[in-house]
Amino acid sequence: MVKELPVVYLQTAGCSGCAVSLLNVASPTIKNVLIDQIAPGVHVNLRFHPVIMAAAGDMAIEVMEDTAEQKKGEYVLVVDGAVPTATDAVYGAVGERNGKPVTMLQRVTELAKDSLAIIALGTCASFGGIPAAKPNPTNAQPVSKVLESAGIAKPLINIPGCPPHPDWFVGTVASVILSGLPKADDLDDLLRPKAFYGKLIHENCPRRAYFDEGKFAKKFGDEGCLYELGCKGPITYADCPLRRWNSGTNWVIGAGAPCNGCTQPEFPDQSAPFYEKLVDVELPTIGAYWASKEEK
Amino acid sequence: MGKIVIDPVTRIEGHLKVECIVENGVVKDARTTGNLFRGFEIILRGRDPRDAQVITQRICGVCPQSHGIAATLNLDSAFGIADKIPDNGRIIRNLIQGAHIAQDHVLHFYHLAALDYVNVADVAKYEGNDSQLNSVKDFIARGELGPFLPRYEGDYRLPPEVNQQAVAHYVKALEIRRTGHEAVAIFSGKIPHSVGVVPGGVTSTPTPDNIMAYIWKIKILQDFINNVYIPDVLAVAGAYMDYAEIGVGCKNLLSYGSFDLEGGSPNYATRRRLFKQGIVSADLKPGALDTGKITEHVKHSWYEDSTSNRHPSQGDTKPQYGKDGAYSWTKAPRYDGKVYEVGPLARVAVTYASGDPAMKEMVEGSLSTLKAPPSALFSVLGRHLARALSAKFIADSLEGWALQLKPGEPAYVEYELPDEATGMGITEAARGALGHWIEIKDKKIANYQCVVPTTWNVGPMDDKGQHGPIEQALIGTKVRDENNPFEIVRIIRSFDPCLACSIHVVTPKGRDLGQYRVV
Question: Do B147 and A46 touch (CB under 8 A)?
């Protein structure tokens, strides 16, 4: 008997970049994740996903609502996007009920209430991200704030990144399947799995030696550390330098571009301007070395 | 008289609702409504102009690279360096955008559109040794068929063995599009939301190993396009030939052209490009592109009439919900006051009409295989065929371009950030003509406007009461079964709409938006 793990994937105020990034997962492949038994006797049963599902309209909404009703406490809710809340949350809706739109805020609240756990996928869902950037025209909120306002105390895991690396999501799902829901110690204070967000980009950067030597690139294409071209690696927690992107093909700094800090709650307002050097940043543990360089 | 409401329209990017009024089985009126507003143009104001390249990619995670290119061309022009980008920079931008669009077309056909034509359930009857198909068969046997069921029923026409092969190709296409993304990442770090393209060129200089790695990934993509994707489109077309006359639309097509073949001219509207700039109509005679003729109408959109009929460089967004006669938050872009469709069909038709020999051979060859006249291009099938040919035309060009790169030579030129400037960037996204306009004051963004492909295609009626392209394609359509309105979703998906891109839209749907204002 194969155990079906029901999943409802709700898109809110986002761009589908998280969903497209998930398609890029290399091992297991997205086909393995959705069609095969991801682990012996377990199948991820993706019931609702607007970008790939066959059904449309009321037929699709019924699947979503039936899952919430029939699989109470059993399904995982994945939210991809921030949640617009301004002006009665009219800026985003998913489907209708009795001829009236159902706002994204209402959907997240209803689906979260009866879920087993919630995964906030991407920086918009985790921290607000781009839709919540100044002046936050729609008062877009992260999932954590929505749950807090609604008094919903379900397990929440944040998987930020704009977009997140697909391994961060699939690895987290693997962990839930093989080891159960994460314990408090598995997540950092921003509810990110430490397995993927435990270290600064800067700590594992292959250009770190240039930083320590004080050799900085002055323009794109130069050898050297990208700190003066705006790299936010020193304040950004993620394992990009080791994991690399798109099946390990490359990564941001590998292409000679500065990290823009996309896994952080500071993204985008405090991590911008993206091509200007960080100012007044205390670098934890590695700052002392830099400070000594400055003094000289 | 009945009303068909589909909300949400799935297997597209973003949040779309469509309403059709049906009388005696024929669509009499159609309205499309987007369901999400994020306010990018408001968010961009006051920021460092260079950040537009990073922020606007987040308009759409399906076609971020095209926004990155449009933003960068826009900034190059504002910074006065549009004609100074080193060839290495120009070519690498083409390689990044090319691999991205080619894989996007594969994604659209197999993962967004195919389930309207292909019966996945036929894999249950599969008896062969293909392990992938047998794993799908096991999946079906377990009985939990999300996300492939439920679905509309009653019009799957392909024989079982063709359906089975198509499902195998659906699975294979997942790998192929991933490979296309890997090719993008070689020069652009990662994708979605890549980092390699910046004003002045690109962030890294080419190396021989990168060039070779790129070429061999592209060969995988190219092989699939030529030997699987195009034959599959033709096979589906053969069984659904009535769709060569369904979803005709406005028959006016507009292309900004894309993939710069030279860098010496600052004028994007006339410089030599792989896909040509221009317009064509039903007679397939080429016309020149004049970006001065682009305006956005708002008579039937919830914006103040005083902002209507303006060129995007003078664009403004002043909401006025509840305005008489308005029914959408999407503006209605027009060219020379007329309705124009954009997309792969437009760029293929414009390039064909301009007499490009390779394009002529491809278009005429595939039309003759289908025994269809050129007028069949204006249809659901025509759009799918043109998308596949667009993929081939791009993929066939990439290796040659990669070999033009000069390792070790610069791919980036430095520039001064101007105190005040204006700019325009035009290119072709996967879904069609994409334009960005910027005004810079005090080295900051004073105004930023994007006119995106899906706004052209899903826009509402304009000031003269002319319906938008998708609305026109729907009106007059016969719907055989109102409970399973295949015709409607097939027409909409043939445009490959991308709602995150048509960024002016918001849900109205009877809500009192009296308090709505731009903060």
Answer: yes
The closest alpha carbon to B98, from B201, B214, B6, B1, belongs to B214
User: Residue B508 phi/psi, 5° resolution?
Assistant: -100, -70
Mapping DSSP onto H, E and C, the string for B252-306 reads CEEECCEEECCCCCCCCCCCCEEECCEEECCCCCCECCCHHHEEEECCCECECHH
Choice among A10-19, A108-117, A194-203 with the minimum mean pLDDT: A10-19
**Alpha helix positions (H), A142-279:** 143-150, 166-179, 194-197, 208-213, 240-243
Chain-chain contact of B62 with A262 (C-beta, under 8 angstroms):
no
Give me the residue label for tokens 């610069």.
B410
| pLDDT of res. A92 | 78
Distance CA B226, CA B247 (A): 26
Instruction: Check: CB of residue B477 under 8 Å from CB of residue B488.
Output: yes
Q: What are phi and psi of A190, to 5 degrees?
A: -100, 15
| Cα distances (angstroms) measured from residue B105 to each of A174, B70, B146, B354 | 31, 19, 24, 23
The length of chain B in residues reads: 519
Angle at the Cα of B113 from the Cα atoms of B363 and B393, rounded to 5 degrees: 30
Residue type, B344: P
- The 10s digit of each residue's pLDDT in A248-294 is 999 999 999 999 999 999 999 999 999 999 875 655 545 555 555 55
Q: Where are the domains of chain B?
A: 2-144+162-494
User: Is residue B92 a contact partner of residue B206, using CB atoms and an 8 Å limit?
Assistant: yes
Under-50 pLDDT residues of chain B: 502-519
Identify all chain B residues contacting A100, using CB atoms and an 8 Å cutoff: 509-510
Q: How many CB atoms lie within 10 A of CB A198?
A: 13
Task: Return the HEC string of B417-466.
Answer: CCCCEEEEEEEEECCEEEEEEEEEECCEEEEEEEECHHHHHHCCCCCCCC
Question: B2-144+162-494: what fold?
Answer: Cytochrome-c3 Hydrogenase; chain B (1.10.645)
With CA atoms as reference, report the closest residue to B70 among B351, B458, B456, B430. B430
pLDDT for the residue A287: 52
Q: Which of residues 94-113 of B touch A (CB under 8 A)?
A: 107, 111-112
Predicted TM-score (pTM) of this structure: 0.94
Structure ipTM over 0.90, yes or no: yes
Q: Does B360 touch chain A (CB under 8 A)?
A: no
- Give the architecture-level CATH label for domain A199-296: Irregular (4.10)
Domain boundary assignment for chain A = 3-196, 199-296
Q: Is B115 on the interface with A (CB under 8 A)?
A: yes
Pick the CATH number of A3-196 from 3.40.640.10, 3.40.50.700, 3.40.50.1370, 3.40.50.300: 3.40.50.700
CB neighbour list of residue B47: distance below 8 Å, 6 or more residues apart: A272, A273, B55, B444, B445
Residues 6+ apart with CB under 8 A from B429: B63, B66, B67, B70, B101, B452, B453, B501
